[in-house]
Amino acid sequence: MKNSWKLALAALYICGCGGGNSPSGFSGGSQGAQAGLVPPGLPARIASASDPYGGINEDLSAAGDATFRVNLQPGWNALAFQVDFVTQIQAGPEVIGFVTYENNRYADPLPLNTDTVNRGDGASLGVFIYADRAGVLTYRGTPHNGISFSGLEPGWNLVAPPSLNLSELSWNEPIFEIGRDGQAVVTDQSADPSLPIWVYSSSIALLAPPYDDQTQRTITISGALAPLPARNLPDSQIRCNENLRQQGPATRNLAAVSNTRWDTGSTLRVLLMDGNAVPDSVYQEVGKLLRDNFEANCNIHFTFVTGPVSTPHDISLKFLADEGFSSQLGTNSRGVNPSMYLSNLHKRTVDDDYRNTVLHEFGHALGMGHEHQSPNANILWNREFIYNYYAGPPNQWDR
Length: 399
Prior knowledge:
By secondary structure, the chain is α+β, with helices and mostly antiparallel strands. The chain has two domains: 193 residues, 3-Layer(aba) Sandwich (Collagenase (Catalytic Domain)); 169 residues, no CATH class. Helix content is 11%, strand content 23%. Strands 15-17-16-18-20-19 form a six-stranded mixed β-sheet, with helices on one face. The longest helix has 18 residues. The two termini are 19 Å apart.
C-alpha cells in the first residue's frame, strides 16, 4: 500500500507537472521509591526459532559500515548492536535464534538475520541470542547518526544504552546493566556499548541524553532543484515530463479527504521537534524530497524551523520516537504535536523505501488518504489475512 497513492498524484487538485535468576539489587535515580523492583530473569532455553514472515538474511552492507565480532558462549548471550541499522549478519549453525523483550514479555524467538533484527524498534532494542555451543557472530551496520535513544513502555524495557554515561540520562527509575551471560547487575553508571540494559519506566517515555529542542532557527534547503526526470516519484507510473492529460485511464482521481486540504498556494511551516538531536543533513534530505516532488509538481510550498512547540507551525515532525510512521491528515495537523512521526527514519540508509516513507507521510499531511479508502477502490479484502498480518510485529494491532 505504501506506493499506491503516488499513482494518482497527477490528478491532485493542486497539481500541475513541473530463564536465569533475577538479581536481588536494584539501581536508579530514585532507588528508595523503587525498592524491590527487579528485572525479569532469562527466558527459557530454545531449541528452534521460526519467522512467520519469512525474513531473509540479506547483505545490505556498504563501504562505510562498521564491523563487529562477538564471541558467543553456550546458552544465552546478551547483545546490543552498536549501529543504527544492521546491514550484514554472519553466524554459524550454533546460533539457534534470539529474543527481545516487548510489551512486558519475551517475544517469540526469531532466527537471526538482517530482516528480523531491523524490524520495529530495530537496533535500539537489546537482544538475547541463544547458541547451543561456542561460536562467533559478526555483524556490520551503519554508524550512529545523531543521538541514540530508546523508546520506553510501562514496565521493564530491554534496550541498547543510549549513552555510555548513564548518569547523564537523568533517569529517576531503576536501571540495571547486563553481563554477557544475560545476568543483570547493579549499574556503576558506565555502560558497555555492546551490552543492553534493563530500564524500568512507570509510563511511556523517551530515554536519551540531553539535546537542544528549544533554539529557534530556520533550516534553508540547499542545492539546485533536481533535473526533471529525477522528480518522478519512486516506483510510480507517473513521469513528470509527460502530458498528464493524455495519460488516459491510468490517471484517476486522488483519494483526498474532504475538509482537510490546504489552500492552493499555501506555504506550510514544518516544525522539526528534535532540534539538534537529528543532524541537519537529515532535515536537508527531507526538504529536498518535498521540494523535488511536491513543490516541483504542485502549488504548495514548505519552510522548516526548529524550536519549542510555541513556534508558529502547521506540521510538527518527530524522528526521536518509537511510534512507527504516521501523520495527521491535512489541516488536522494543526494543534497536534507531533502531527507526524518518522520514527528512527533518520538512522536508515537513504534509499527508495526511505524516500517512499517521507513522501507517503507528507502526502497524508497534504490531505491524501490511502487509495484503498477511496469509494472507487472496489477492493475485495481477505480480512482474516490482513488481521493476522497486522497483529504481528512491528504493528501488533488488535482488531
